[in-house]
Amino acid sequence: MNPWVLLLDADERVTDLLAEEIKEAVKTLDGPVGYHIARKTVFCGTWMRHSGVYPDYNLRLIQAGHGRYEDRIVHEHMIVDGPAGYLRDHLLHDDDKGIERFFDRHNHYTSLEAVEIMRESLKSGGEKLGGNFFERGPQRRRALKNFAQRYLPFRPMFLFIYMYVLKAGFLDGRMGLRYCLLKMFFEYQIVLKVKEMRDPNSPLYQKHKDLLE
User: Fold this and answer.
1) What secondary structure letter does DSSP report for 127?
2) How far is CA 192 from CA 57, 66, 154, in A?
3) 8 Å CB contact between 167 and 50
4) Beta-carbon neighbour count of residue 25 at 10 Å?
5) 151-192, pLDDT tens digit by residue?
6) What is the three-class DSSP state of 13?
7) CA angle centred on 40, ends 177 and 17, rounded to 5°
8) What is the DSSP string of 57-107?
9) ω before 32 within 30° of 0 (cis)?
10) What is the DSSP letter of 141?
Protein backbone atom coordinates (compact mmCIF):
# COMPACT_ATOMS: atom_id res chain seq x y z
CA MET A 1 0.00 0.00 0.00
CA ASN A 2 1.25 3.48 -0.87
CA PRO A 3 1.69 5.37 2.45
CA TRP A 4 1.30 8.73 0.70
CA VAL A 5 -2.05 10.41 -0.05
CA LEU A 6 -2.63 13.23 -2.56
CA LEU A 7 -5.70 15.36 -1.78
CA LEU A 8 -7.34 17.03 -4.77
CA ASP A 9 -10.51 19.09 -5.27
CA ALA A 10 -12.74 18.25 -8.22
CA ASP A 11 -11.51 21.28 -10.21
CA GLU A 12 -7.78 20.70 -9.65
CA ARG A 13 -5.31 19.04 -12.00
CA VAL A 14 -1.76 17.86 -11.42
CA THR A 15 0.70 19.28 -13.96
CA ASP A 16 3.34 17.05 -15.55
CA LEU A 17 6.13 18.82 -13.66
CA LEU A 18 4.31 18.44 -10.36
CA ALA A 19 3.70 14.74 -11.05
CA GLU A 20 7.43 14.18 -11.48
CA GLU A 21 8.19 16.14 -8.33
CA ILE A 22 5.66 14.10 -6.35
CA LYS A 23 7.22 10.85 -7.60
CA GLU A 24 10.57 11.97 -6.20
CA ALA A 25 9.10 13.16 -2.90
CA VAL A 26 7.31 9.90 -2.11
CA LYS A 27 10.31 7.65 -2.72
CA THR A 28 11.31 7.92 0.92
CA LEU A 29 9.56 7.97 4.27
CA ASP A 30 12.42 9.94 5.82
CA GLY A 31 12.07 13.69 6.16
CA PRO A 32 8.77 15.59 5.84
CA VAL A 33 5.53 13.72 6.49
CA GLY A 34 3.61 16.18 4.34
CA TYR A 35 4.09 18.69 1.55
CA HIS A 36 2.41 22.00 0.78
CA ILE A 37 1.57 22.55 -2.88
CA ALA A 38 0.77 25.92 -4.49
CA ARG A 39 -2.39 26.35 -6.53
CA LYS A 40 -2.45 28.19 -9.85
CA THR A 41 -5.95 29.68 -9.96
CA VAL A 42 -7.52 30.38 -13.35
CA PHE A 43 -10.52 32.74 -13.22
CA CYS A 44 -12.63 33.17 -16.37
CA GLY A 45 -9.72 31.91 -18.44
CA THR A 46 -7.14 34.20 -16.80
CA TRP A 47 -4.37 33.08 -14.47
CA MET A 48 -4.53 35.18 -11.32
CA ARG A 49 -0.80 35.86 -10.91
CA HIS A 50 -1.31 38.62 -8.35
CA SER A 51 -3.92 39.73 -5.77
CA GLY A 52 -2.24 37.50 -3.18
CA VAL A 53 -3.79 34.50 -4.91
CA TYR A 54 -0.59 32.85 -6.16
CA PRO A 55 1.10 30.96 -4.70
CA ASP A 56 -1.79 29.62 -2.61
CA TYR A 57 -0.09 26.91 -0.58
CA ASN A 58 -2.16 24.08 0.86
CA LEU A 59 -1.12 20.83 2.49
CA ARG A 60 -2.11 18.27 -0.15
CA LEU A 61 0.48 15.49 -0.07
CA ILE A 62 0.72 13.60 3.23
CA GLN A 63 1.84 10.29 4.64
CA ALA A 64 -1.23 8.27 5.58
CA GLY A 65 -2.00 8.56 9.26
CA HIS A 66 -0.10 11.82 9.77
CA GLY A 67 -2.78 14.36 8.81
CA ARG A 68 -6.13 15.60 10.04
CA TYR A 69 -8.57 18.31 9.01
CA GLU A 70 -9.30 21.40 11.05
CA ASP A 71 -12.49 21.34 13.10
CA ARG A 72 -14.40 23.64 10.74
CA ILE A 73 -17.55 23.25 8.67
CA VAL A 74 -16.18 25.09 5.60
CA HIS A 75 -12.78 25.78 4.00
CA GLU A 76 -11.08 23.44 6.44
CA HIS A 77 -7.37 22.87 5.93
CA MET A 78 -5.36 19.73 6.50
CA ILE A 79 -2.97 19.81 9.48
CA VAL A 80 0.00 17.46 9.53
CA ASP A 81 1.50 15.80 12.61
CA GLY A 82 5.18 16.34 11.93
CA PRO A 83 7.47 18.37 9.66
CA ALA A 84 6.09 19.57 6.32
CA GLY A 85 7.93 20.68 3.19
CA TYR A 86 7.03 22.69 0.10
CA LEU A 87 7.00 21.47 -3.49
CA ARG A 88 8.12 23.80 -6.27
CA ASP A 89 5.48 23.21 -8.92
CA HIS A 90 1.74 23.80 -8.66
CA LEU A 91 -1.74 22.39 -8.98
CA LEU A 92 -3.87 23.89 -11.73
CA HIS A 93 -7.19 25.12 -10.30
CA ASP A 94 -9.56 25.99 -13.16
CA ASP A 95 -13.18 26.30 -12.02
CA ASP A 96 -14.77 27.88 -15.09
CA LYS A 97 -18.41 26.85 -14.79
CA GLY A 98 -19.96 30.27 -15.31
CA ILE A 99 -20.68 33.28 -13.15
CA GLU A 100 -24.09 32.01 -12.02
CA ARG A 101 -22.56 28.92 -10.43
CA PHE A 102 -19.84 31.12 -8.93
CA PHE A 103 -22.47 33.23 -7.13
CA ASP A 104 -24.54 30.22 -6.08
CA ARG A 105 -21.53 28.45 -4.61
CA HIS A 106 -20.21 31.50 -2.81
CA ASN A 107 -23.61 32.38 -1.40
CA HIS A 108 -23.51 28.97 0.27
CA TYR A 109 -19.90 29.41 1.40
CA THR A 110 -20.50 32.84 2.94
CA SER A 111 -23.38 31.45 4.98
CA LEU A 112 -21.16 28.70 6.34
CA GLU A 113 -18.34 31.17 7.03
CA ALA A 114 -20.79 33.29 9.02
CA VAL A 115 -21.86 30.20 10.95
CA GLU A 116 -18.21 29.37 11.63
CA ILE A 117 -17.54 32.87 12.97
CA MET A 118 -20.52 32.53 15.30
CA ARG A 119 -19.34 29.09 16.43
CA GLU A 120 -15.85 30.40 17.19
CA SER A 121 -17.35 33.33 19.11
CA LEU A 122 -19.52 31.02 21.18
CA LYS A 123 -16.63 28.62 21.89
CA SER A 124 -14.25 31.39 22.90
CA GLY A 125 -16.83 33.24 24.98
CA GLY A 126 -15.85 36.46 23.25
CA GLU A 127 -12.14 35.94 23.81
CA LYS A 128 -9.56 36.48 21.09
CA LEU A 129 -9.75 33.95 18.27
CA GLY A 130 -6.79 31.60 18.12
CA GLY A 131 -4.07 31.16 15.53
CA ASN A 132 -0.35 31.46 14.98
CA PHE A 133 0.77 34.61 13.14
CA PHE A 134 4.28 33.21 12.70
CA GLU A 135 3.38 29.98 10.93
CA ARG A 136 3.95 29.81 7.19
CA GLY A 137 1.06 28.92 4.88
CA PRO A 138 -2.56 28.13 5.87
CA GLN A 139 -2.05 28.46 9.64
CA ARG A 140 -0.80 32.01 9.29
CA ARG A 141 -3.61 32.92 6.88
CA ARG A 142 -6.16 31.49 9.30
CA ALA A 143 -4.75 33.53 12.20
CA LEU A 144 -4.78 36.74 10.15
CA LYS A 145 -8.30 36.02 8.93
CA ASN A 146 -9.54 35.36 12.47
CA PHE A 147 -7.97 38.60 13.68
CA ALA A 148 -9.51 40.61 10.82
CA GLN A 149 -12.95 39.12 11.33
CA ARG A 150 -12.94 40.08 14.98
CA TYR A 151 -11.16 43.44 15.04
CA LEU A 152 -10.85 45.06 11.60
CA PRO A 153 -13.60 47.58 10.70
CA PHE A 154 -14.58 48.04 7.04
CA ARG A 155 -13.02 44.65 6.37
CA PRO A 156 -14.39 44.22 2.81
CA MET A 157 -12.92 47.55 1.72
CA PHE A 158 -9.55 46.77 3.29
CA LEU A 159 -9.57 43.37 1.61
CA PHE A 160 -10.07 45.01 -1.78
CA ILE A 161 -7.25 47.50 -1.16
CA TYR A 162 -4.98 44.69 0.02
CA MET A 163 -5.68 42.48 -3.00
CA TYR A 164 -6.00 45.07 -5.77
CA VAL A 165 -3.40 47.62 -4.66
CA LEU A 166 -0.93 46.11 -2.18
CA LYS A 167 -0.87 42.70 -3.88
CA ALA A 168 -0.97 44.26 -7.36
CA GLY A 169 -4.24 42.74 -8.54
CA PHE A 170 -4.43 45.58 -11.06
CA LEU A 171 -1.62 43.88 -12.98
CA ASP A 172 -4.08 41.12 -13.91
CA GLY A 173 -6.09 43.66 -15.90
CA ARG A 174 -9.86 43.58 -16.18
CA MET A 175 -10.13 40.09 -14.70
CA GLY A 176 -7.97 41.17 -11.77
CA LEU A 177 -10.41 44.00 -10.99
CA ARG A 178 -13.38 41.67 -11.38
CA TYR A 179 -11.83 39.03 -9.15
CA CYS A 180 -10.92 41.49 -6.38
CA LEU A 181 -14.40 43.06 -6.46
CA LEU A 182 -16.01 39.66 -6.16
CA LYS A 183 -13.77 38.80 -3.21
CA MET A 184 -14.74 42.08 -1.58
CA PHE A 185 -18.42 41.26 -2.11
CA PHE A 186 -17.81 37.76 -0.72
CA GLU A 187 -16.41 39.32 2.46
CA TYR A 188 -19.27 41.81 2.68
CA GLN A 189 -21.78 38.98 2.48
CA ILE A 190 -20.11 37.39 5.51
CA VAL A 191 -20.32 40.67 7.44
CA LEU A 192 -24.04 41.03 6.70
CA LYS A 193 -24.80 37.40 7.48
CA VAL A 194 -22.98 37.50 10.82
CA LYS A 195 -25.05 40.55 11.78
CA GLU A 196 -28.24 38.74 10.83
CA MET A 197 -27.29 35.59 12.70
CA ARG A 198 -26.90 37.49 15.94
CA ASP A 199 -30.70 37.54 16.00
CA PRO A 200 -31.91 34.05 16.97
CA ASN A 201 -35.23 34.78 15.26
CA SER A 202 -33.63 35.60 11.90
CA PRO A 203 -34.19 33.26 8.93
CA LEU A 204 -30.46 32.60 8.60
CA TYR A 205 -30.07 31.67 12.26
CA GLN A 206 -33.09 29.40 12.10
CA LYS A 207 -31.73 27.71 8.98
CA HIS A 208 -28.37 26.91 10.60
CA LYS A 209 -29.26 26.75 14.30
CA ASP A 210 -28.43 23.04 14.50
CA LEU A 211 -24.80 23.96 13.82
CA LEU A 212 -24.81 26.58 16.55
CA GLU A 213 -26.61 24.90 19.41
Assistant:
1) P
2) 29, 38, 12
3) yes
4) 15
5) 667 889 999 999 999 999 999 999 999 999 999 999 999 999
6) strand
7) 155
8) EEEEEEETTSEEE-S-SSSPPEEESS-EEEEEEEEEEE--S-HHHHHHHHH
9) no
10) H
